């Protein structure tokens, strides 16, 4: 059993860290990081303070995922719908990747983490795109945890674009309609090259997917927690993985 013993000075509450068994670690964990705004409001603070503390939770989740031996951690950092928020908040959210990477990239490199990005990245502000590109470039040969940021990601747009691409191939005569397969569709998704998430986590008590990995999450195990994203840490990731290990995945078949 991998059991994490936290020293007393790091313990924030008396809850024990969940026990995670050695095998059956989910390969790909995807997280809808929700509740930054409500966390801030509860403390009487501006929403952006919630987002900045959300960034700290990104670090905790990354360290815990690495420690557990998870191969891919996908984090929903900005959706195609988030542009509807006030400009100040959007600008702040778009500055966070740069801030996070300025603070953490060296440590990510040291931990052999490979940074990736998934989304409609052509719409990102140049400074956000450049910071991500630099991190991707500097970590591209790393072989450890893949830290995949979903930035300006929207599943319906992703599916629409994939359909358009395949339709063009059908029109060109390079693909016959009867040869279209699920694998071909997966390969045309923004997540191409990554396995589907085994475990999908959402914080803040909301029970929906919010346009996140709709195709890829067909057989993901879902885990919801009421806590807000800025409170998320090692304990919650261990709890989610321990619960995942108790589930039986049947993919529509029989166990
Ligand atoms: C949803 O909470 C959260 C977001 C839209 C942004 C998520 C971004 C982070 C956690 C920081 C990302 C950090 C990096 C390094 C990219 P909400 O604001 O909708 O919360 P609410 O529903 O309580 O208002």
UniProtKB/TrEMBL annotation:
Q: Which UniProt keywords apply?
A: Magnesium, Metal-binding, Transferase
Family stated for the protein in its record: Belongs to the UPP synthase family.
Organism listed in the record: Fontibacillus panacisegetis
Protein role = Catalyzes the condensation of isopentenyl diphosphate (IPP) with allylic pyrophosphates generating different type of terpenoids.
Q: Which InterPro entries match?
A: UPP_synth-like, UPP_synth-like_CS, UPP_synth-like_sf
Q: Which cofactor does it need?
A: Mg(2+)
Q: How does it assemble?
A: Homodimer.
Q: Does the keyword Metal-binding apply?
A: yes
Q: Which GO terms describe its biological process?
A: polyprenol biosynthetic process
Annotated active site residues, numbered on this chain, are: 34, 82
**Which EC number(s) does UniProt give?**
2.5.1.-
Detail which positions bind substrate.
35-39, 47, 51, 79-81, 83, 85, 202, 208-210
What are the protein's GO molecular function terms?
A: ditrans,polycis-undecaprenyl-diphosphate synthase [(2E,6E)-farnesyl-diphosphate specific] activity; magnesium ion binding; manganese ion binding
Protein name listed in UniProt: Isoprenyl transferase
GO cellular component term, pick one: cytosol
């Amino acid at each position: 059993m991998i059991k994490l013993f936290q020293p007393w000075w790091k313990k924030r509450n008396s809850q024990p860290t969940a026990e995670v068994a050695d095998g059956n670690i989910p390969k790909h964990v995807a997280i809808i990081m929700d509740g930054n705004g409500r966390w801030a409001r509860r403390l009487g603070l501006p929403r952006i303070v919630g987002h900045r503390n959300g960034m700290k939770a990104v670090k905790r989740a990354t360290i815990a995922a690495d420690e557990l031996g998870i191969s891919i951690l996908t984090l929903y950092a900005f959706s195609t719908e988030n542009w509807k928020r006030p400009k100040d908040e959007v600008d702040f959210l778009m500055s966070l990747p740069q801030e996070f990477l300025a603070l953490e990239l060296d440590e990510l490199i040291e931990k052999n983490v490979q940074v990736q990005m998934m989304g409609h990245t052509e719409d990102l502000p140049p400074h956000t795109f450049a910071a991500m590109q630099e991190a991707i470039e500097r970590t591209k040969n790393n072989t450890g945890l893949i830290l995949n940021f979903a930035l300006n990601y929207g599943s319906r747009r992703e599916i629409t674009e994939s359909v358009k691409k395949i339709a063009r191939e059908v029109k060109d005569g390079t693909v016959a309609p009867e040869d279209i397969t699920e694998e071909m569709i997966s390969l045309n998704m923004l997540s191409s090259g990554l396995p589907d998430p085994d475990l999908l986590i959402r914080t803040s008590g909301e029970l929906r997917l919010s346009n996140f990995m709709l195709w890829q999450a067909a057989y993901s195990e879902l885990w919801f927690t009421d806590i807000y994203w800025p409170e998320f840490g090692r304990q919650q990731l261990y709890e989610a993985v321990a619960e995942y290990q108790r589930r039986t995945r049947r993919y529509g078949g029989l166990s």
